[in-house]
Design brief:
The protein is of the alpha/beta class. It has helices at 30-36, 52-61, 65-68, 85-91, 130-142, 159-172, 215-221, 223-235, 243-270, 303-306, 332-339, 354-358, 450-466; strands at 5-11, 40-46, 95-100, 113-115, 180-185, 277-283, 310-313, 320-328, 369-377, 408-415, 418-423, 428-432. Helix 6 packs parallel to helix 9 and helix 7 crosses helix 8. 28% of the residues lie in helices and 16% in strands. This is Arylsulfatase A-like enzyme.
Length: 491
Amino acid sequence: MNRPNIVLIMTDQQRADWTAESGFPLDTMPFLDGLMGGGTRFRRAYTTSPLCVPARISLLTGRYPSAHRVRQNSAARHVLRGADLVDVLRDAGYALHLAGKTHFYREQADFDTFAAPYWHDRGPDGAATPEQARFERWLAELDHSVGHEPTPFPVECQFPYRIVDGAIDAIERTPADRPFFTWLSFPEPHNPYQVPEPYFSLFDPGEMPERLTGPEGAARKGGTYAWLRELIEEKRPGYDAEWRRYRANYCGMLRLIDDQLRRFFTHLRETGRDTDTLVFFVADHGDYAGDYGLQRKGAGMAECLMRIPFAVAGPGVRPLANDTDFVSLADLLPTICDALDTEIPPGVQGRSLWPLLTGAQYPAEEFATGYGERGFGGLSYGVDERPPLHFPYEGRTFDELNTVTQAGTTVMLRRAQWKLLLDERGTGELYDLEADPAELDNRYDDPALAEIRAALTTDLARWMIRVRDDLPEAAYTLKRAPHNWHAPGGR
């Protein structure tokens, strides 16, 4: 068959609701909105886990963290998997290009070109010009905080610009008769929240939309929300006063990415490489962006962290804003397998979205619920505990992903407007997101919702059975469902 080119755009820590196309009042990514507007946009897309490495490994393997076993950012080397996205595309004859952030187990030798790895304050070793190296030192000194002045370096030093340079160079070196897979993996809009002109002044802090809830939300939520809020306040007293500047920088970073995507796709069009190209756009997870008086991520499974942008455009994909079906980052690999008419590898738990993208029939119940996981195991810490961390309690430096915020295990179930959370201690949370989008009114013990809670708990149990690992393969023959669909009528 004729293989389409594939471009995977991945941002880091981008909320699903911060572009005009998704309903945000400011126009942060006009080019990307237009590009993906010709395809399918999933309004109910979720990460498998609200932190980088587990989510990215779910994208690669199509497996949930409880199966691939990477439940914290420092554990990528412990992955358990079968064939992954790189294997599938290599076997299908693709030239494989990566430009940008890695934060997974694959390495340079696994790709034909590797303009990587980019982190949040440095680029690939030995690849920077003297000015770019000065910029990276400046980024490190910013210590993942919020820039209050325009970044004193030009756009050409910013990582999205350099990543697009690497991707363009890779495509230019790919023979015209060979399909390519290009992964544009941007470290932004992840902290540090900085941006040069004209982006710094493009969005006025005074025009930032109001927060869903401020620090009072963290206090009301308690637990790790309150613990993390107190930790940051100890280290950076009064930090929450900068939330409008923080949001303005975040918007500016999105527009900077958008302009570089425009440059990349302009090159594809000018070289004739855009006509048979599937484009996927996802993020690994979201960002508080000031909600709950918090920055970055770390505590809980709030919608601002769990929901992600997920859109697909290209040949055969219908234009649609799908606001009904729950889809997952784990669904990307089996979707690509279906698009290429190749077998979904054993051990993959995600479901193909290709029939949804092309207008074929599919069972509604298959996508009526969504599921996610959080935590590296053991027991959760109490709000007053201060165990040893991988950074000192003293000083300004902190990592919101740490022993306390990531301890324990929590699983999430979504159906309709309902959200159910359950942790290893048996603590439950139940929210009506239509009435309570900030998730402040826990109705788990509300007698009026007893039947709803029971039905959602059954849904959650089914998902927890579903993500039990089929690997390793042995003597018995595994029965596979078409498209990895389990619901009745999944053909």
